[in-house]
Amino acid sequence: MAPTTIRTPPALADFKPLEDHLQQTPETFFGGKPVLYYHATGAKAWIAKSQRGRLPFFPADLESEPTDPEGAALSEGAEETVEQKVDLYVNSQNLTIFSPSAEVGFEIPYPVISIHAIKTIGTGDTKYPSVFLQLELSPDGGADDDDFETVELTLIPPTISAGTAAAPAQAEPEAEPTIGKKQPDNEATKLFKAITACADLNPDPAEDDEDDEYDDDRIVFEGDAIEGFQGVFAGSNSGGLPPPMPGSSGWITAENVHEYFDEQGNWLGGDDEVEVDVEGEEEGGVSGELGEGAGTVRRREDVEGSTEGGGEKEEQGESKRARID
Questions:
Q1: Which of 13, 43, 204, 238 has a C-alpha 20 to 30 A away from that of 284?
Q2: Are 202 and 194 in contact (CB under 8 A)?
Q3: What pTM value is reported for the model?
Q4: What is the pLDDT of residue 194?
Q5: How far apart are CA 102 and CA 59, in angstroms?
């Protein structure tokens, strides 16, 4: 998703106004005209002289200095900054900036905009709002910050955007109290909010490297996985079960339950006590593949006796090895 240079200005008919988009349900959510969130003509674009030539509408030999009143409010760096008049098209697909004088424009995908913020030009009583953009124009994103081609751009929209018509001259009404009322947004704030809304519609694409970041920490299970299924392993050629998962100590399934229980549900170990030591090796009776306590059968009188008497305490001094009755 790289920026695109254009040679003809966009037509307003190519976009769908935001007001129309909000008033009716779209016929389709795929394709269709991009929604125009903000449009302004005659905006000012500033860039440092050292970065001329990195954007198509800022040729390397451009020498136009920032104009007043914003240019006069610059406390420092005015001689190191150049200005270009541009038209702005903030739409749901990209941010399009076109310069009529240079007859060239730039379609900027929103993931390329790494930072956008409201920037105040000037100090004291002479302050002018603008929108600051930091663009990362590296074609492949780079492996570290040194690979990025960063460009810092300042946009100063006109006092009245192209989509706002001036009201006819009328007698000024009496001033109303403004305490507790929200003041209307200036053009820089409208531009900032439009870029923010469209950037939310175009998040950064997922990187494959991020998915593989923790590959070394994954638990790897042995066995042949069945294609198309994650975590499902095939059995052996003899029809047996797949290898047990780590820590499972074997499985009891519908296919091998007859090896551990009879038709009445009794444990096939019989009445013989089977003890399993700490190392998990069997000392007699059933297979030691099962984990500690597996296959334990408790009689009703044993459970009721331990409940009424508060449990057998005389066995506390005995071995704590698992006992299967």
A1: 238
A2: no
A3: 0.57
A4: 94
A5: 8
